[in-house]
TrEMBL record:
Name of the protein in question: DYW domain-containing protein
Assigned protein family: Belongs to the PPR family. PCMP-H subfamily.
Keywords tagged on the record: Repeat, WD repeat
SMART domains, A to Z: WD40
Keyword Signal: no
Positions of the DYW domain: 1186-1255
């Protein structure tokens, strides 16, 4: 076979690779059945399995491995009592934490539907623990109290003396979760239906399974169980083979001993022959689609794979020097994970160039071990492996005394070897193979160290089978004892007991007061996370040495027991022991771990007092502490006062400023770092790239990218940071070049690229990138993909995919779904997602509030905000984003007084300098009619962004002060250095349109593309049509619409309709109305405007036609109402309203003002000839003199102080007669009157209006 052919077979991206087939099945390219047939029909994958990667981080034998539902994360548990979460494709540890168990971890699995944030573990200490991964990355472990379901009774009469059958294995039927199979120290596999359990816990099994020839055999027991996808039961026996049972092979609920005749008649299960597991408990499993293969570990260090249907052994793989404990298949692709006595996990994939063949010695039994379990003890590590091996076989009674009394002879023999390992005993050496004797002789040259190592390792192993009793207050959170004793009254305890490892160490210690072996033992316990044993040993040692205290504090900190570390430090200080430079870094880290500023400052004071403020390591810890808690000024002060700095110091300050959101300061510190002669490393570069993403420094980001290339710092993490930086600057082409040049793409890189496409409006490319992923998508993938959903159907598809894959519930993903539905106008769907969330954070509340506001449901937004406000939760306090989201709702609901109250709270909460909040306040005040306060808020913005300028330009525009808006735009361009965007020109053209600035409008419209490269959008054409319509040249406006490069919308034609109304051109109005109704058949404003034009023209047939058309379309005229706020109360008026308390005074004032402005009594006298009599009567009953805006204005005049502005809001377009009345009223009353209608604000002052009589 040529090298080229070999490479083509092993290439991961081959067109017929099973991973590619899996991807094609997921996107619909292959049917599930065809995929399954293709997968199972090929033995190549099994015969080409070889080790892809070894995952080695555990310090003990690995007892369990398990994939998550997506298959991208592997969880493992070990005799070192730690649980590790692996990114198995890259070989990186994503998370490592202490399980909280005091003994070997035997099982560790992800809890379904927990988004890989909940892990359930069980261990040899008899406890079940649930570990929850929090948003902050911390892990909380909680002991789960077990509930007794049933007790397995012995079936064989010769075993009836036993109270219960001891169990080794349990399995759940994947098709019926109510069926549990259990097996243990006899020949029967029992099947229980938990729905039929008796209340006393002594339920009988629903069925029993056993090979006929093993029934009655007292020397066999079950070592492993597994269910296939077809509910077949796989059972392995010690010193026997593996058997496959189907439902029809059951022996019933009360099996009886069989005779030879019965054996010949009964169904014989399929046997999988090969290696026999003689003594150890090994797991069995199925692998492949439809469970086509049977796989098993062994105590000879091999993995065996059989065909399930034929029982043919097709593969034997060397997987461990001693024992294979666990084999776990990947849920989706042809990958296996195995673990054993060796301290690593082996990941197997089908990448071998040649097909494997069966070895010649398949029938070989387990490796022979002279003198029982003690073999190959050529090093402490190998002895420790055998200790772990013994632990898996040891069974201790719940009673500690019985447990010690029932220790096996093997255990006593092993303990004897451990205690005398450093003696010159030829017997021990003779039990070792010849090839290992040289190693033992070399080890004997350092006799004391060997003895110490073996003692510690044996103690570490034996600690996993001993209940622990504590005597120290600092271990309350990890203690299982209810009888704590303090060190002060320790001498009063006469029957004090130590854990087995501590007794072992103390038994062999010397009589010296400061025995170095005890110090080494304490250090070993602490480094291994065995803080319970370390506490026992510490209490028996001389505590005058600060090194011992440092070891304990470091151990607590490493295990995440920060409160205990701080309490231990306090105990150390109270004892009179002075801390040194090695103490403080761990104490400061623990203070940061509990987010306690007061404790951290107390430690800082001690650092200064003891003179360690010049120690670089201590100061680095202080910088990280203050930055983590957000006190950047204190961190910088510590940094500036450092006499000596290293690369860690600079990285801490650079990343710290980034963490508190000050990207500019982070980049400044990076430059200072380089000036001081320090070369940035990968951590410096990643922090600097993140800082460039926070500030407008794209060129700086490119420089850092070039520096990384020149320095050869181009690993996957740095390149992913570069990718993210270009993505945030919308430099998609640069991001694509970086992404395509990455040889090793992890899931983070794929997620960043998908997010880059989604954020920059390239939804199709985002979905194509998603389909090209060969890795399993995670939650972040879907979160980044949701913004790419241009249609709501695409978003629902992603939502359904997340539900099917078990990604929900997940607070971040659910929040992203709320955003998606809110932007798509599906508020009810967003509500459903929000209401069903089990855990809501502040971002979720903010997203739901924003969804309401974006869709005009302001009162729902205000109601939800008040619910958030009333919550009694320290973690759900409204922040700047909350205020920025809710303030527009106050603007639209015209709640100026409540808006002012919220502004006061913003100032009190110290958000008054936040640019986003101030921008929202500018908008709120402007929309509520208070232009003066809007300008004050704008002037308070220190760092004005483009949104700030857009808000104030639009504020002056809607109030009719277009020239001020134009001046503000010029100021923005010339002095601020902020570049305009599309929204800027929309606000500017709106100002020109409202104020009639025709020449300025055309000038700025032409400059959009010419000077700023911005293509006009539909909103810009709307304002330009309105601007042309002001001139009365309606034909030019119509021609401008027809020549637009974009398709006109109803808003564009509506602008032409409004212009024709103002110029009484009914022909153009009819044409424009036809276009509007063709696009939006239920446009109320179009019907009403056309109806009024026909009525004034006396075209009563057209009036009746429009009315019938409105009725058929279900369209009704909006009832005009006006609102005014006086003395903190909101008053709402309708036309001719007489429901107010001060109605008589209001009408009296209205009559007085009307006479003062010399308004005609009958405003319709000029058009009597055009109106029908009944219409004239109706119009007189609804005379402009009784319009709601006049009534509200009169109430404002009599209820406010002289000289105060009268502010009124109207929900419809103000009529011309009322407009003229308010102009004159402002002059005769010498009051400024501000009226906001459905379009703009009218400022009436001294007989003039800001709109220039065109609106």
């Amino acid at each position: 076979m040529t090298d080229k052919a070999k490479r083509s077979r092993t290439h991961f991206n081959g067109s017929h690779h099973p991973v590619v087939d899996f991807w094609r099945r997921e996107v619909g390219g292959i049917s599930p059945r065809s995929f399954s047939d293709r997968f199972s029909a090929s033995e190549n994958m099994v015969l080409r399995l070889e080790i892809y990667r070894k995952l080695a981080k555990h310090k003990g034998c690995v007892n369990t491995v398990s994939f998550n539902a997506q298959g991208d994360i592997l969880v493992s548990g070990s005799d070192d009592r730690r649980v590790l979460l692996w990114d198995w494709e890259l070989g990186n540890v994503k998370l490592s934490f202490h399980s909280g168990h005091s003994n070997n971890v035997f099982q560790a699995k992800f809890m379904p539907f927990s988004d890989d944030r909940t892990i359930v573990t069980c261990a040899a200490d008899g406890m079940v623990r649930r570990a929850s991964v929090l948003e902050s990355g911390k892990v909380e472990t909680v002991t789960q109290a077990p509930t007794e379901l049933f007790t397995c009774q012995a079936v064989n009469p010769r075993r009836r003396h036993l109270e219960a059958a001891q169990l080794n294995a349990i399995a759940m039927d994947p098709r019926n979760s109510n069926l549990l199979a259990v097996g243990g120290m006899d020949e029967y596999a029992r099947l229980y239906d938990i729905r039929r359990l008796d209340g006393d816990g002594s339920s009988r099994a629903a069925d029993h399974f056993a090979p006929p020839h093993l029934i009655g055999d007292l020397h066999v027991g079950i070592t492993g169980l597994a269910f296939s996808e077809q509910s077949e039961l796989l059972v392995s026996y010690n010193n026997e083979f593996i058997y496959l049972f189907t439902h029809d092979m059951g022996l019933g609920s009360s099996p009886m001993p069989s005779s030879p005749e019965d054996d010949s008649k009964s169904s014989v299960p399929m046997a999988y022959k090969g290696h026999k597991n003689v003594e150890t408990v090994k797991g069995v499993n199925f692998c492949g689609p439809r469970s086509e293969y049977v796989v098993s570990g062994s105590d000879c260090g091999r993995i065996f794979i059989w065909k399930k249907r034929s029982g043919e052994l097709i593969r034997v793989m060397e997987a461990d020097r001693y024992v294979v404990n666990c084999i776990e298949p990947h849920p989706h692709i042809p990958v296996l994970a195995s673990s054993g006595i060796e301290n690593d996990i082996k990941v197997w994939t089908s990448k071998a160039a040649e097909r494997a063949t069966l070895p010649d010695n398949i029938e070989m039994q387990r490796k022979r071990k002279p003198r029982g379990w003690m073999y190959r003890v050529s090093s402490p590590r190998e002895l420790l492996a055998q200790l772990f091996f013994l632990q898996n076989r040891s069974r201790f009674s719940e009673d500690r005394e019985e447990g010690e009394a029932s220790s096996s002879s093997t255990g006593r023999e092993l303990l004897d070897l451990i205690l005398n390992f450093n003696d010159d005993d030829d017997e021990h050496v003779n039990c070792i193979p010849d090839k290992s004797r040289g190693k033992i002789e070399d080890v004997k040259e350092e006799e004391d160290d060997v003895a110490y190592s073996i003692q510690i390792m044996s103690a570490t192993s034996l600690a996993r089978c001993s209940p622990i009793y504590y005597s120290c207050d600092a271990c309350k959170c990890v203690s299982s004892s209810q009888n704590h004793q303090t060190s002060e009254n320790r001498n009063l305890v006469t029957n004090r007991r130590f854990s087995k490892p501590v007794r072992l160490i103390l038994h062999n210690r010397s009589k010296k007061p400061n025995d170095p072996s005890l110090t080494r033992a304490l250090r070993e316990f602490a480094d291994s996370g065995l803080m319970e044993d370390a506490l026992h040993l510490f209490d028996e040692m001389n505590k005058s040495d600060v090194f011992l205290w440092n070891v304990m504090i470091k151990g607590f900190t490493a295990c995440g027991l920060h409160h205990e570390a701080l309490r231990f430090y306090s105990r150390m200080v109270s004892t009179g022991i002075k801390a040194d430079s090695f103490t403080f870094p761990f104490v400061i880290k623990s203070a940061a771990g509990v987010s306690s500023l007061s404790q951290g400052k107390t430690v800082h004071a001690a650092v200064i007092k003891l003179g360690f403020d010049s120690d670089v390591y201590v100061c680095n810890s202080l910088v990280s502490f203050y930055m983590k808690l957000g006190w950047a000024w204190d961190a910088e002060k510590v940094f500036d006062e450092m006499r000596e700095r290293d690369i860690v110091s600079w990285n801490s300050i650079v990343s710290g400023f980034l963490a508190v959101g000050d990207g500019l300061r982070s980049l400044v510190m990076l430059k200072e770092m380089m000036k001081c002669g320090f070369e940035p490393d990968r951590f410096s570069i990643m922090s600097a790239l993140g800082a460039c993403s926070h500030v407008d420094c794209l060129n700086m980001g490119k420089e850092i990218h070039c520096y990384a290339i020149r320095s050869g710092i181009e690993d996957v993490m740095v390149l992913t940071s570069v990718l993210d930086m270009y993505s945030r600057y919308s430099e998609v082409s640069y991001a694509e070049r970086v992404f395509n040049g990455m040889t090793n793409k992890n899931i983070v890189a794929w997620n960043v690229m998908i997010g880059c496409y989604a954020r920059n409006g390239r939804g199709v490319d985002a979905f194509l990138c998603f389909q090209k992923m060969l890795l399993q998508p995670d939650v972040i993938t879907l979160i980044n993909l949701l913004p790419a959903c241009e249609e709501i159907l695409e978003g629902r598809t992603v939502h359904g995919y997340a539900t099917r894959r078990g990604f929900l519930p997940h607070v971040v993903l659910e929040t992203a779904l709320i955003d998606m539905y809110g932007e798509g106008g599906k508020v009810k769907s967003a509500e459903i997602v929000f209401d069903r969330m089990g855990e809501k954070n502040l971002v979720s509340w903010n997203s739901m509030i924003a969804a309401y506001v974006e869709n005009g449901e302001n009162y729902s937004a205000l109601k939800l905000f008040r619910e958030l406000w009333d919550l009694d939760s320290s973690s759900l306090v409204p922040d700047s984003t909350t205020f920025a989201s809710i303030l527009p709702a106050y603007a639209e609901s015209l709640s100026l007084s409540e808006g002012r109250q919220l502004h006061a709270y913003v100032v009190k909460a110290r958000y008054s300098s936040n640019t986003i909040v101030l921008n929202s306040l500018v908008h709120m005040y402007a929309m509520c009619g208070d232009l003066e306060d809007a300008r004050k808020c704008f002037d308070q913005v220190v760092f004005k962004d483009v949104v700030s300028w857009n808000s104030i330009i639009m504020a002056y525009a809607v109030h009719g002060f277009g020239r001020i808006s134009v001046c503000l735009f010029s100021e923005m361009i010339t002095t601020s250095g902020v570049s305009p965007n599309k929204s800027t020109f929309a606000s500017l053209l709106a100002a020109c349109s409202i104020s009639g600035l025709i020449d300025e409008g055309w000038e700025h419209f032409d400059s959009m593309k010419r000077e700023y490269g911005i293509d006009p959008g539909i909103e810009h054409y709307v304002y330009m049509v309105d601007l042309i319509g002001r001139t009365g040249n309606l034909s030019s406006a119509k021609r401008f619409i027809e020549e637009m490069p974009v398709v006109p919308t109803a808003r564009v034609w509506g602008s032409l309709l409004k212009a024709s109304r103002n110029h009484n051109d009914i022909t153009v109005a009819e044409f424009a109305a036809e276009q509007v109704l063709r696009i939006e058949h239920d446009n109320t404003g179009c019907y009403v405007l056309l109806l009024n034009m026909y009525s004034e023209a006396g075209r009563w047939e057209d009036v009746n036609r429009i009315k019938l058309l409105m009725k058929s379309q279900g369209v009704s005229k909006t009832t005009s109402c006006s609102t005014v706020v006086t003395r903190g109360r909101t008053h709402v008026f309708t036309n001719g309203d007489r429901s107010q308390v001060e109605t008589n005074r209001i009408y009296e004032v209205l009559d007085i003002v009307s006479r003062m402005v010399e308004e005609e009594e009958d405003s319709y006298a000029h058009c009597v000839s055009k109106m029908r009599p009944e219409t004239l009567l109706k119009k007189r009953g609804n005379s402009p003199r009784r319009h709601s805006v006049r009534l509200a204005t009169c109430l404002g005049l009599i209820s406010t102080e002289t000289g105060r502005v009268v502010m009124v809001r109207n929900n419809t377009r103000i009529c011309r007669r009322c407009h003229e009345f308010l102009e004159k009223a402002s002059k005769v009353t010498r009051r400024e009157i501000v009226v906001g209608d459905s379009k703009i604000f009218h400022h009436f002052s001294n007989g003039c209006c800001s709109c220039g009589n065109y609106w």
